[in-house]
Amino acid sequence: MPPPLQPPSVNLLILPVPTLLRNLRSALPAALVALSLAAGAHTSSGQSTTIQRAHDLGLTLTQKTPYNFTGRIFDFDAVGFGSGTLLRRHTVLTAGHVVYDPLLGFTTNTTFTRALYENYSLSKDPVTKAAALAGYQSAVNLTGTNNTNSAFAQDQGYLLLNDAPVDEDWANFIANPALLTSSTTQFVVLGYPGVTFDGRTMAYIVPQSPFVQLSTTGSYTNENYIAEPGMSGGPIYVVLDNSPNERYVAADTVGGIDDSTAEFNVSYVRAIDKTSNKFLVAAEYVTPLTSTTTFIKHVKVSGPKTVARGTTATFSAVPVFAIPGTTGARNVTTSRYPEIKVKSNVIATPGQAGITVKMTSNTTFDVFVPNVTSVRPGSQVTLQAYYDYKSRAAAPGKSTFTFTIQ
Amino acid sequence: MASFNPPGPLTRFGIFVLAGGVALVLAFWGVLRYLSDVRKPAPRHDATHHVSPAAGAAANPAGGGPGTAESDQAAAMARLNATVAQALAVLRDPTISNKKAALDALKDALRSADPKVAVAVIRQFLDSKQDAPTGLKFTIGDNHELDEAPTMRTFMMDQLGDISLGAGLGDAAEVARATLESKDSPDEWALAMRNLALADPDGSRSLLAAKARELITYPPWQQTTSGGYLEAFDVAAYAGDPNVIADLAPLMGSTGTLQRASRIALQRLSALAPEQVADYLNAHPTAMSDYPLLRADYMGSMDLSSPTQLAQAETYLARTDITDAEKSKFIGRLGLPVGFVSNTLVTPEDITTVPVLEQRVLANQTARTWLASGKYPTLQTALQRVIEFTQNTVMPTGP
Question: Which of A101, A104, A108 to mutate to test the interface with B (most CBs of B within 10 A)?
Answer without folding.
Answer: A108
